[in-house]
Amino acid sequence: MASTGPTTQRFARTAQAARSERAQKVAKWVFGAMALAMVAPLIGIVTYLLYRAWPSLGWEFLVDLPRKGMREGGIWPAFVGTLYLVTISLAVAAPIGVLAAIYLNEYARDNWFNRLINLAVINLAGVPSIVHALFGLGAFVYAAQFGFSILSASLTLAIMTLPVIIASTREALASVPRAFREACWNVGATRWQTIRAVVLPNSISGILTGIILQVSRAAGETAPIMFTGAVFYKAVQRGDLFPYRLGDQCMALSMHLYTVSTQVPNVKESIPYATAIVLLGSVLLVNATAIAARVFMRRRKRW
Amino acid sequence: MGGSSRIVEVEGLRLAYGIKEVLHGISFAIDRNEIFAVIGPAQSGKTSLLRCLNRTTDFIPSATVSGSIRVDGDDIRRVKDVFGLRRRVGMVAPLPVGLPMSIYDNVAFAPRCSGMTAKRELDDIVERCLTQAALWDEVKDRLSSLGTALSGGQQQRLTIARALSHQPEILCLDEFSIAIDPVTTMRIEDVLKGLRREITIILVTNLVQQARRLADRTMFLWNGEIVELGPSEIVFSDHPADRRTYDYVNGIFG
Amino acid sequence: MSAVPLTPGGAAAERRPTRSTLSLLGERVIEALIKLSGVSAVIFVVAIFFFIFREAAPVLWSKDFHILEFLFSTEWYPTSVSNVRYGTLALTVGTLSVTAVAIVLAVPFGLGAAIFVSEFCSPKLKETLKIVIELLAAIPSVVWGFVGLTVMSKIIVTLTGTAVGVNLLNGGVILALMSVPIIVSIGEDALRAVPDSYREAAVALGATRWQTVYRVLLPAAKNGLLAAVLLGVGRAVGETMAVLMATGHAVHIPDGLLNSVRTLTANVAAELGEAPAGSSHYRVLFLTGVLLFWITMVVNVAADLVVRGIRRK
Ligand SMILES: Nc1ncnc2c1ncn2[C@@H]1O[C@H](COP(=O)(O)OP(=O)(O)OP(=O)(O)O)[C@@H](O)[C@H]1O
Ligand SMILES: [Mg+2]
After folding, report:
1. pLDDT digits (tens, 9 = 90+) for C252-272
2. If one looks up domain C91-312 in CATH, what number appears?
3. Best mutation site among A187, A191, A199 for testing chain B: the one with the most B CBs within 10 Å?
């Protein structure tokens, strides 16, 4: 009789342990399913788009011009237009963004003004893309009189990508240990000499991958270029690598996808899908490259 | 120059990080060509004191310094060329820091920063400083390999070579031996003994024995205040001026 | 004064090299550029507000415009000949309802996935999942819109038997898919910011993983998680192309998930091309931009304050 007490107690404890173990299992599966629910769409979407796009996909689709009011043919002018926009916008945004990040990470003291700058960067990142479009229209197209042009569209895109370049560059700079900076300061190096000699050389790979990631973001944007320089259709030479000038309007992949999927009736079935695949494919490819580069760099750190 | 025998004069030095004061108005002076040891328990403000001497407190946004420090008669808060000041006061940090560049560039870095470009002069400096830091023989065949690839003790000597490369009048060493083995420590101590004929050395250390071996005079810093400052023989004797010094030196509190 | 052999120190100071004027000047120039770029973000934010407001302002004083009507009327007839009305309430409600649907779907999944990634999976799986999240976040919004228009609308039509597949539900689901990566990555940051000592302490007391998460980590990381949700909301409110393509085109207050709606952002994108520059319609669209600017600003500043709340602790 005397032994029942402890036994039940031990039993009670195991029962509770079993219960909490079950809760643990359930939690793991539920959260795992949620994570899966996030991964599945990526694979599902890509496969489905690829399947529907298949009839049109090919080299020909890339280098051919849109024909019959964009109902047939390829996407060359849009593809090249996107290259233009991305290149020019990054050429503007990357230097400013990197320098701004250097300022914030290496020079700025903690005062109200620099807090204001930080807040501005955060806000700039949060401004909706359509608001950027309105800004580009009001500032570049009309006020600065660049007109509807590649220049206006690229500048609008540049301002849009700026905060993200700043953020990724800051992260790269912050990964350089402070001890290196202190060692330089201790031997009488100025801030800039320190940055030149140890900070930049050891963060440049991170900075570059951050910028490459922005290539994909800039390539996918539609709203900011739609009203500042991208057009539905523009005739160019088939396969011509330099069909546009800075003051021209241009086609762009993202805009083209919007047009063929919503504005043009009776488009050949697979064309919008193929356009989406080219856009998505380029973006994911660039991203994957940047990620691979980052993983590779991390493996061969110098300290 | 150098009329006075005092190379460093500190008067009423206070240092605060934000609202937390870590040096509470300390005054002392250091003689030319002596080895001056600073001992004290952790957090007592030793590193902070060194930061004041070469004004790297400028790089800590929250730091505020008051009081006066003179190096060779110049008030360091008034010097026009603060980078020049930092080259007059060499600094060796507690943990060895080989910069992620070649060994040669590590040593040539400071001269280059100050504008020296001639290859021959740089070669001379690199060889001289590495020799002085007792590292030359080990690395002379691989000057182009990475400074960060050296062993801890080698990196510490590289740090010393770098600090010597800008021809400092004062060399500050902050607990240089915490990351290296006793044999290397002894080698570096020999180096320091050799250097003292030419420059003044400020040695921050937690190793009481080390201070006793090397220092002419020793200062015991505790909670941002000077408890005792005097010739090492007295500080480390059985009857120092302050009871707390005896207790600390003999490990009764810490 | 005499017996100082002068290898280092001492009189050697007299032949110390000096930097060339060119390198000094170069440093001045580059530092000026750095400071200028540092300020640029502030300049751009101010410029964005200024130029949008400048285009919008004249309409504020014109007589066929009333600010109360703009904010609280549901009548949006910008191109009507006889009865021009600029009421954005239906659009605002459109934005709010799509955002609400998106958040209801995205927050549980986002936070759940964040917890899984941060606490329950092996390092290798974690690395992979984070890359997937990054790739998901990179999918352009126009592609999401296209997916809504084609795949999602077909799914909705099949499942519910409704006539049109582009509607509130569609837009909400698409926006949720777009917001989840943000919520996951920021939420995961927040969970990682909880010191390991908390986890160890909880485990030492005999808590299981799940109990640790639920009793210790969630309370400790709640500000960061809230910020993650807010930033997800910010993205959903500001999203344009995806909702333009996926929610249909009806400007009215929706009374069910299967109604078509139009959001503030989509409305600007849909009509800006047709509004003649300088017309009232054009200016009202810019005014919508001003409204959106402030809404997202408030959301982002709030998220930042919440985040900084954690840092201070
Ligand atoms: N950058 C800093 N910001 C804020 N507080 C600091 C900073 N550096 C040091 N402190 C504080 O100042 C006090 C003195 O630190 P210091 O590093 O000078 O001590 P120390 O005597 O060198 O100690 P140790 O023997 O551990 O090196 C400590 O309480 C420390 O927390
Ligand atoms: Mg210290």
Report:
1. 888 888 888 999 999 999 999
2. 1.10.3720.10
3. A187
Q: Whose CA is nearest to atom 18 of ligand 1?
A: B45
Residue B46 lies in a domain: yes
pLDDT score for C28: 93
CATH number at residue B241: 3.40.50.300
Put simply, the answer to whether B162 touches A180 (Cβ < 8 Å) is: no
Distances in whole angstroms, Cα of residue C34 to Cα of each of A100, A107, A212, C46, C253: 6, 9, 22, 19, 49
Summarised one tens digit per residue, pLDDT across range C177-220 is: 999 988 998 898 888 888 888 888 888 888 888 888 888 888 88
Q: Out of 1.10.3720.10, 1.10.287.110, 1.10.443.10, 1.10.3380.30, select the CATH number for domain A59-299.
A: 1.10.3720.10
Condensed to tens digits (0 to 9), the pLDDT of residues C90-149 reads: 999 999 999 999 999 999 989 988 988 888 888 888 888 888 888 888 899 999 999 999
Q: How many residues in total does chain A contain? A: 303
Task: Say whether the ipTM exceeds 0.85.
Answer: yes
Other beta carbons within 10 Å of B178: 15
Cα–Cα distance for residue pair C227/C114, rounded to 1 Å: 13
Is there a domain that residue B254 lies in?
no
C15 Cβ under 8 Å from any chain B Cβ: no
Sorted by sequence, the CB contacts under 8 Å of residue A145 that are 6+ apart come out as none
Q: Is the pLDDT of residue C299 over 60?
A: yes
User: pLDDT at position A13, please?
Assistant: 61
Residue B146 belongs to some domain of the structure: yes
User: Whose CA is closest to atom 17 on ligand 1?
Assistant: B47
Query: Is B1 contained in some domain?
Result: no
Q: Which of B15, B22, B208 to mutate to test the pocket of ligand 1 (most atoms within 8 A of CB)?
A: B22
> Min CA distance, C84 vs chain A (Å)?
22
Task: Confirm if A175 and A203 have CB atoms less than 8 A apart.
Answer: yes
Best mutation site among B46, B50, B51, B248 for ligand 1 pocket (most ligand atoms within 8 Å of CB):
B46
Domain encompassing residue B156: 6-249
Paired tokens of B162: 């770098």
Provide the number of structural domains found in chain B: 1
Which chain A residue shows the shortest CA-CA distance from B115?
A: A189
What pLDDT, on a 0 to 100 scale, did the predictor assign at position C312? 56
pLDDT of residue C3: 37
Distances (CA, A) of C195 to B53, C152, C204, C307: 36, 41, 15, 16
- How close B244 gets to chain A, by Cα (Å)? 33
